[in-house]
Amino acid sequence: MLADSNARLAAARRLTDRRARRDTGRFLAEGSPAVSEALGRPGSVVEVFGTISGLRRHAKLLAAAEVPVYEISSKAAAKLSETASPQGIVAVCRAVDVPLERALARDARLVVVLVDANDPGNAGTIVRTADAAGADVVVFAGRSVDAYNGKAVRASAGSLFHLDIVVDVSPAEAIAAGRAAGLAVLAAAGSGLDNLDDLADRGALRAPTQWLFGNEANGLPAEVTEAADRSVRVPIHGRAESLNLAAAAAVCLYASARAHRAT
Length: 263
Fold this sequence. Notes:
About 40% of the residues lie in helices and about 20% in strands. It is an alpha/beta fold. Strand 5 (about 110-115), helix 8 (about 120-130) and strand 6 (about 135-140) form a beta-alpha-beta unit. The longest helix has 17 residues, at about 245-260. The protein starts with 6 loop residues before the first helix and ends with a helix. The relative contact order is 0.14. The model has no long low-confidence stretch (mean pLDDT about 95).
């Protein structure tokens, strides 16, 4: 077992800080879904730390791992976690983000742009949803939460390793690049001029699409909505005031995915 003061463990612990992640180009992936998918992406994992129970529980997963695996105490594992319930297994991973131009050069048909999204759990859930809906790229634009925040990585349940992830771009850059790549740019907005169901019925979602999703509390900035080709609202058929960000994103992305399957 590594001592809690071990230099390797101390370096991993520093990755709970955004600045350290940025400086080193590394981040932590916690829990079996994230660790499993990270190990399935060659070159992504540097090393794995786990409690004795965590390592036993995931022995089959780690048996074929061609990376160093270290046993640590439960106390040390808790200090590597950014969540309230540590999973007992954590991988140190290399950053997976790619430049925007490269991501969009691969004939992307469904792209997600998060603009100033500030809830890491929602951001990670949208990455997972984007993956499930068949999206190609997720862009963290503006003042969005760090894509490698521990809660965001865990909420993505490994999908972070399946998609092209883009970070550190402005909303204007993302929109311009999407339009240049031939994508229809749609802004999800509660007061959007177009109804999502109407667009789907008219076949207007069949084109390759870039969806813009905003801040949980304030939605998209006005200038971002105005820069889009359309502002689109999810229809509310009951008495709920609105959908939260992750739910609205799921509805929009699956509407696009269904339209794309029909082409």
